[in-house]
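A protein record pairs a chain with a discrete description of its three-dimensional fold. The following entry can be read in just this way:
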Amino acid sequence: MKADVLLFTQTIHSLLSSFLPLQSALAVCKEILTGKAEKKFTAKILKKVNEGKKFSSALSEEKVFPPLYVSLVSIGEESGTLPEVFGHLASYLNGKRNMKRKIIQALLYPALVLATAAAVVLILTAFVLPRLEGIFEAFANSCENIETQLNRIKTSTFVSSIILFGLMAVLATCLAAHRLNGKTALAIDSLILKLPLIRDFVMAMQMHDFSFAMKLLAQTHFPLIQSLAYAKNVLSNIRIQRAVESACKSIACGKDAGKAFEDEKIFPEYLTVWIKIAEENGETAEAFSQIFNYYQNESESLLASITQAAEPVFILITGAVIIAVIAQFVIPVFNLLGAL
């Protein structure tokens, strides 16, 4: 069971904003949360805090909390702004959840199309065709045409199965390799950033997460290089993450931040321009706030455009699958029945 970090964050924010001490807030949170996973990790965190551990240290020992989350809580502890930090985290996590729901809704239709196609081919190959073989083979010796058509149906069904399940295997292999192999993940993520439309959407989502992290870190007056080191952890695209690391090293060597990001040749101009503005006026938090708002709207707009453009494409794919099944299986079977 996956723990609901958003619910925990919202609850702690509400309790801390009501001026409850941290330990009391955790104790109340443990009682009012209904999920077993949330109760379990809240109880463990409360126990560690009661033993004298820092709140952020207790959070870091629970795998459900990402590094940036722990870092921001640590900053909130040091600066006495825990309620504000949890408010920002709750807002961010809620926005992420809403975006994930929209993405799932957008992918639901193509996933159903693929699952239906796979199920049809599987049923035809595993159940329907073997039963029909027994009927047609009884007549195969007396009619050469029946045997030829029967072999043709077998071949076309087998080839369709191989192609469909081969594509699914390739997809599964790519996903597994992305998780397990750093070089493969870098190659896949670099390829994604070259695909039209998808590239823009992925970049918008990554810049949305990155700018949120930088905005919060800048608001707490965290040094730029340390902020970048923490903020890169929110990036799921390895290619972009490596580019942030490279820019961070360039800044540490004395290069201007805007120029360092610009030289990576991967970041959008909107980001690099605002970083340069932040360098000039010293308003880093305000600059990243503008970047965050821009990419929040941009990611939602791009998702709507992709969904709208993909709908007719998947309708055509559905039609093509139906026509292929009819042409390769249904019509030949009826022809054989007519020849009996």
About this structure: The mean pLDDT is 82. Residues 178 and 185 are 4 Å apart (CA to CA). The chain has two domains: 5-65, 81-340. The radius of gyration is 28 Å.
